[in-house]
Fold this sequence. Notes:
GO terms for molecular function: ATP binding; ATP hydrolysis activity; transmembrane transporter activity. Helices cover 33% and strands 24% of the residues.
Amino acid sequence: MTTALTTPAPSSSASTEPVVRVENVSRTYGTGSAAVHALQDVSFTIAPGELVALVGRSGSGKTTLLNVIGGLDRPDGGRVVVDGREVSSLDERGLVELRRDVVSFVFQTFGLVPVLSAAENVGVPLRLRKLPTADREARVQLLLDLVGLGPHALQRPGELSGGQQQRVAIARSLANSPRLLVADEPTGQLDTETGTAVMALIRAVVEAEGMTAIVSTHDPLMVSLADRVLRIADGKLVAG
């Protein structure tokens, strides 16, 4: 029997409300003449189910913006609301719950545990939630099949190519059916052909899992696959 994809339950904010709301957000590192204004009065929203590409040169503020949205960094001014939660005012426990239940991340560096198999890596978030073994194994197999790695479930990261490792990382990011996927240059370490496949995969899994996503990228394919493009330069939103 085929197990259906687990789609996250609708939040109390309903589908008419943005999943992401960024309002007049600023972030500065350092002080005085050494100050770096990483973000300057940035505002935008992202609708449910939308795939947004975040584009800008290195140092433009893309990573800082993604970190602020995902609760890995705090803005100096403004507010960020994700799935009805005001991220910028959450305490540490609230941030842990946000990153466990609502937001999932994919980075350039795959972040896999070398001694664990592909299946075990994907299952880590489900173990932390104490999901029953049978349910966990079914979900892991479903996700590995979704990213095209079902036959590689028992292989460790060192036995997989870079593209395969990123696919495992994407499968792991989907384990808890997050409302929002945040991806920071997910193809930055991959060759063009492999990166193209991973970008197409992100588009497919966003649709299959009913998620919203924001992806920073230099890849023209990702831009073409996105529903909308946000461009950032010198910490300021210049389009979108």
